[in-house]
UniProtKB/TrEMBL annotation:
<keyword id="KW-1133">Transmembrane helix</keyword>
<feature type="transmembrane region" description="Helical">
    <location>
        <begin position="97"/>
        <end position="117"/>
    </location>
</feature>
<dbReference type="InterPro" id="IPR005828">
    <property type="entry name" value="MFS_sugar_transport-like"/>
</dbReference>
<keyword id="KW-0813">Transport</keyword>
<feature type="transmembrane region" description="Helical">
    <location>
        <begin position="448"/>
        <end position="474"/>
    </location>
</feature>
<dbReference type="InterPro" id="IPR020846">
    <property type="entry name" value="MFS_dom"/>
</dbReference>
<dbReference type="GO" id="GO:0005886">
    <property type="term" value="C:plasma membrane"/>
</dbReference>
<feature type="transmembrane region" description="Helical">
    <location>
        <begin position="66"/>
        <end position="85"/>
    </location>
</feature>
<feature type="transmembrane region" description="Helical">
    <location>
        <begin position="486"/>
        <end position="507"/>
    </location>
</feature>
<protein>
    <submittedName>
        <fullName>Probable inositol transporter 2 isoform X1</fullName>
    </submittedName>
</protein>
<dbReference type="InterPro" id="IPR005829">
    <property type="entry name" value="Sugar_transporter_CS"/>
</dbReference>
<feature type="domain" description="Major facilitator superfamily (MFS) profile">
    <location>
        <begin position="29"/>
        <end position="541"/>
    </location>
</feature>
<feature type="transmembrane region" description="Helical">
    <location>
        <begin position="184"/>
        <end position="206"/>
    </location>
</feature>
<feature type="transmembrane region" description="Helical">
    <location>
        <begin position="123"/>
        <end position="144"/>
    </location>
</feature>
<feature type="transmembrane region" description="Helical">
    <location>
        <begin position="29"/>
        <end position="54"/>
    </location>
</feature>
<dbReference type="GO" id="GO:0005366">
    <property type="term" value="F:myo-inositol:proton symporter activity"/>
</dbReference>
<dbReference type="InterPro" id="IPR050814">
    <property type="entry name" value="Myo-inositol_Transporter"/>
</dbReference>
């Protein structure tokens, strides 16, 4: 991978399967490290369903939107610290050590959450889990990348992305499985300790990254591992290329340990690599993906589906499509290329967010009216604000009442007919259900609810194969070896900071400006992201690190992304003509 020019292989996907038979050791390394991606995905997905039942158990969480956002986003805050520390531990102690620490933190956090007697301790457990997820988010793809032959590097790093989305789908299944079990959300959150324990055991049996070992002058260990990774006829060549690359870096710098921010920014290739890598990580979050993954059941309820169980079941669609999209990415990432896949992905995301914005606009502007006759049927529980109203109310206005909070009890004849605006508590909710009516506190009945699900499905279908996996792949291969751990940590930290901003603000945004305008903002950001990819992101498909560095040095902006770039030999031939 560090040697001379390695041409991109259009059949990398088939090559990956072939590798499973010829050298299962590489896949063993990739999938063992990829469990970190599974943990990452599980934590992202499980809170979406668990939050519905946490609200039921803790009235303070149900009443306060900021507390719901806090429970979700504190894991993200922990991940920011974990990713930042992970960059340092990766370079100082190694990739394997970082993964082991991440597993320990995740295990402790899962146990704390499962036993939490209050929202405060639940948040503490979320922070621990976040620390582990943050370290794993940048270490797993790095470890896999450094243990992969160049021809299948993209495909194998994509397996980490597949395990992330697989973890999200698994969390949806777990959420659905425990909806009728006593302690619902405790099981949902606590069961995550098992894969963390499994990976800890597996990583104890696996070696350190051979490239990190070479950086630390442990050549014998590194060579032994390289010979297991590469076929005998390629191993010597790869070992020599890696040795030459590292010695050249050490000679240039005078020491292999002097890494600081000033040096990063002054090095042209690293600076340009950081612009592309960090920018992709920021835009990955700001186009809204984790609003869908963290809050998908809540979004389903906002679209007009009242039941917790229904919302959790329908969220399986998004997580399932996300997992399938990553399989598509594994096939196309080394065949089509990173940049082209990103551009196609963003075009679809823009279209999907436009659909969602339009659907939610129709949903909120055509909600059922509140009937005084229907409300008087529950006279003891009438919403106080509605009793004082001098104008006509609809469902959306009812749900915005806040002194106290109110809910909408739909008509027993047809949920789209006028219903009742009542005080929101468990007694009233049970009373409404006892008459065969639906109870709404998050969104209103709508004939457009299924269109919102189609919009969400389209969003995931387009996002997952491109923006879902490509940013991590580009960040695993765009930086020089010497700076890869630190730069990967910076990029992952940027991802988690962006994630925190989105997670902490989504519910508040939907309350203040509405769900429609919230998705419209994500759509505008997606347009900006598209232009960013066109201008700043290079194509790294099938290229060794040396070629990527040359491309960044020359700042070869390739706007015609649909055309095949000329290889180095072709460029030289044209120059000599």
């Amino acid at each position: 991978m560090e040697g001379g020019v390695v041409e991109a292989d259009a059949s990398a996907f088939k090559e990956c399967f072939s590798l499973a038979w010829r050298n299962p050791y590489v896949l063993r390394l990739a999938f063992s490290a990829g469990i970190g991606g599974l943990l990452f995905g599980y934590d992202t997905g499980v809170i979406s369903g668990a939050l519905l039942y946490i609200r039921d158990d803790f009235s303070s969480v149900d009443r306060k939107t900021w507390l719901q956002e806090m429970i979700v986003s504190m894991a993200v805050a922990g991940a920011i610290v974990g990713a930042a520390v992970g960059g340092w531990t990766n370079d100082r102690f190694g990739r394997r050590f970082s993964i082991l620490v991440a597993d320990f933190l995740f295990f402790v956090g899962a146990v704390i959450m499962a036993a939490a007697p209050s929202p405060t301790l639940l948040i503490v457990g979320r922070v621990f889990v976040g620390l582990g997820v943050g370290m794993a988010s940048m270490t797993s793809p790095l470890y896999i990348s450094e243990a992969s032959p160049a021809k299948v590097r993209g495909a194998l790093v994509s397996t980490n992305g597949f395990l992330i989305t697989g973890g999200q789908f698994l969390s949806s299944l777990i959420n659905l499985a425990f909806t009728n079990v006593h302690g619902t959300w405790r099981w949902m959150l606590g069961i995550a300790a098992l894969p963390a324990l499994l990976q800890f055991i597996l990583m104890l049996l696996l070696p350190e990254s051979p490239r990190w070992l070479y950086r630390k002058r442990r050549e014998a260990e590194a060579e032994a591992i390289m010979r297991k990774i590469y076929p005998a006829q390629e191993a010597d060549k790869e070992i020599q290329a890696l040795k030459d690359s590292i010695e050249a870096e050490i000679k240039e710098e005078g020491s292999s340990e002097k890494i600081n921010i000033t040096k990063l920014l002054k090095t042209k290739t690293v600076r340009r690599g950081l612009i592309a890598g960090v920018g992709l990580q920021i835009f990955q979050q700001f186009v809204g993906i984790n609003t869908v993954m963290y809050y998908s059941p809540t979004i389903v309820q906002l679209a007009g589906f009242a039941s917790n169980q229904t919302a959790v079941a329908l969220s399986l669609v998004t997580s399932g499509l996300n997992a399938m999209g990553t399989i598509v990415s594994i096939y196309f990432i080394d065949r089509t290329g990173r940049k082209k896949l990103l551009i196609i992905s963003l075009c679809g995301v823009i279209l999907s967010l436009g659909v969602l914005s339009g659907v939610f606009h129709e949903t909120t502007s055509h909600s059922p009216n509140v009937s005084k006759q229907e409300t008087s049927h529950f006279s003891s529980y009438t919403c106080p604000d509605f009793s004082l109203a001098t104008t006509n109310w609809d469902c959306m206005k009812c749900l915005k009442a806040s002194s106290p909070d109110c809910g909408f009890c739909a008509s027993g004849t047809n949920k789209l007919f006028p219903g009742a605006c009542l005080i929101s508590n468990n007694t009233v909710k049970d009373l409404c259900h006892s008459e065969g009516r639906l109870w709404y506190t998050r969104g209103c009945p709508s004939r457009y609810g299924w269109l919102a699900l189609i919009g969400l499905a389209l969003y995931i279908i387009f996002f997952s194969p491109g923006m879902g996996t490509a940013p991590w792949i580009v960040n695993s291969e765009i930086y020089p070896l010497r700076f890869r751990g630190v730069c990967g940590g910076i990029a992952a930290t940027a991802n988690w900071i962006s994630n925190l901003i989105v997670a902490q603000s989504f519910l508040s945004l939907t309350q203040s400006i509405g769900t429609s305008w919230t998705f419209f903002i994500f759509g505008v950001i997606s347009v900006v992201a598209l232009f960013f990819v066109l201008v700043f992101v290079p194509e790294t498909k099938g290229l060794p690190i040396e070629e990527v560095e040359k491309m960044l040095e020359q700042r070869d902006v390739h706007f015609a992304f649909w055309k095949k770039q000329a290889g180095e030999s072709e460029k030289k031939a044209n120059t000599n003509v």
